[in-house]
TrEMBL record:
Taxonomy, superkingdom: Eukaryota
Provenance organism: Aegilops tauschii subsp. strangulata (Goatgrass)
Entries under SUPFAM superfamilies matching the protein: F-box domain
PANTHER family linked: OS08G0203800 PROTEIN, OS08G0203800 PROTEIN-RELATED
Name of the protein: F-box domain-containing protein
Length: 446
């Protein structure tokens, strides 16, 4: 009774792990394995793995992971979105955990296994948050998410060092790749371009894209996994009204010379991430519906090419305000999506074959907007995740909705995306097998 309260709490905390370990020691290892392999939820299994050292050794074993995922990585699951935080002229004190750090925010998807709470990118990439400049700003402060693929998030870092030199007309764009599986962040070499240029279209190609017949390679069992092969950036120069392709190669660690694609006076590339299909990154470019093309960049050649998109308009009313967007299906077919009448229906066209210009109307999905909610006709697609069958759209009143392509349900999620730059949203698909390999393999011996 005379022991100080803080000493009693310390003893209790120190005894808890020993008690948990003793409880697991009473069961044979093969019995524990049979229990753990039946944990259906991947996030729960990961929490079990980090609960104690014996369980971590069992779960991190390659034989266990191959048994848990016998068919390979399988279909990734949508766990949430990343977006840039809005800058305010005055800091407002609030209970929001994101009010302090200004790195991009993670917004969980509905029923996400990562929980319902928003958090900063720093909770995934600790090494980048540890590096600060002389003013105490983190490396990812005010960073803009550009695209995310295979657990690799490409961001544009905030400019530093002031304005470009007077008379040069040049500026430096700094990009970085955050590996959400290993928790690392690597800055790419500076990309020089004109001061007025903009980068709104990017793509990540990995070594899995070397083989066009394989959608995804087997995950590397090594800690510090990095499958980055190329980073593609489409730079628009308003002075020349041309789009230019800049390519970063991980083998050369340099940016290529800008390659002209085509003039904006002829076609306009839709902002957003590329649809990667059969080793080629595709963007949609159009001038109304008079001329539509796909801009493709192959992993093997690295040169841009364009293919005409022919869709018989007939009875289809494409509308004037809703721009279609591209998506890559799980079977490596390229699809074109278009919302009709606000959020009342979604039409899907599919291209079969690499060089086929004809697109067939594959399906029409009737959507069910929320009851007593009038969605404006002018709806914009913020991002699409065809693997999980989810769309994130926004109307002109900045109300945000998630569209389920399987059920046709439409749910409003405006509150979850408050104080975020909606034009910077990118979806995060979790490949759980790769995540387990990357996070647990290197800790078995610690």
């Amino acid at each position: 009774a005379r022991v100080a309260p803080w000493k009693r709490r310390k003893k209790t905390r120190a005894a808890a792990p020993a008690t948990a370990t003793a409880a697991t020691d009473t069961l044979p290892g093969d019995v524990v394995i049979e229990i753990l392999v039946r944990v259906a939820d991947a996030a729960t299994l990961f929490r079990c793995a980090v609960a104690c050292k014996p369980w971590l050794v069992l779960v991190a074993d390659r034989a266990f992971l191959h048994r848990r995922w016998p068919d390979g990585p399988g279909q990734p699951s949508l766990v949430g979105f990343f977006a840039q935080q809005r800058r305010h002229t005055s800091q407002v004190v609030s209970a929001d955990p994101l009010a302090g750090p200004r790195s991009p925010a993670f917004v969980p998807a509905p029923r996400s296994p990562l929980g319902p709470s928003r958090r900063s990118l720093g909770s995934f990439v600790s090494s980048a948050m540890a590096s600060q400049d002389m003013d105490g700003a983190g490396m990812l402060d005010d960073a803009v998410p550009l695209t995310l693929r295979e657990g690799l998030l490409l961001v544009r870092l905030a400019p530093c060092g002031g304005a470009p030199a007077v008379g040069t007309g040049q500026t430096v764009v700094q990009l970085a790749v955050c590996d959400l599986f290993t928790g690392t962040c690597d800055a790419l070499p500076p990309l020089e371009c004109n001061t007025s240029s903009s980068i709104n279209n990017c793509a990540i190609l990995t070594d899995a894209d070397r083989s066009s017949h394989k959608r995804r390679r087997s995950p590397s069992p090594l800690p510090g996994r990095s499958s980055l092969l190329k980073v593609l950036a489409i730079v628009f120069d308003p002075d020349t009204s041309y789009y230019y392709l800049c390519t970063f190669s991980s083998t050369k660690s340099t940016w290529s010379e800008p390659t002209p694609c085509f003039s904006k006076t002829a076609l306009r590339i839709t902002d957003g991430s590329a649809a990667v299909c059969r080793g080629t990154a595709h963007w949609f470019a159009c001038d109304g519906w008079e001329s539509c093309r796909t801009l493709g960049v192959s992993t093997s050649t690295g040169r841009p090419s364009s293919t005409e998109v022919y869709i018989p308009q007939g009875r289809y009313d494409f509308g004037l305000y809703i721009t279609p967007w591209l998506g890559a299906a799980m079977d490596d077919t390229l699809s074109l999506f278009h919302l009709h009448g606000g959020c009342r229906s979604l039409h899907v066209w599919t291209r079969h074959g690499r060089h086929n210009v004809n697109w067939s109307h594959s399906k029409e999905i009737e959507l069910r907007p929320p009851e007593q909610k009038a969605i404006c006709e002018d709806v914009q697609c913020l991002c699409a995740d065809q693997g999980s069958g989810m769309l994130l759209v926004m109307d002109r009143l900045e109300r945000v909705y998630i569209v389920d392509l399987q059920t046709g349900g439409v749910d409003e999620v405006t509150e979850q995306f408050q104080r975020l730059e909606l034009q910077t949203v990118v979806p995060f698909e979790m490949d759980w097998q790769t995540f387990f390999f990357s996070r647990l393999e290197g800790h078995k011996g610690t």
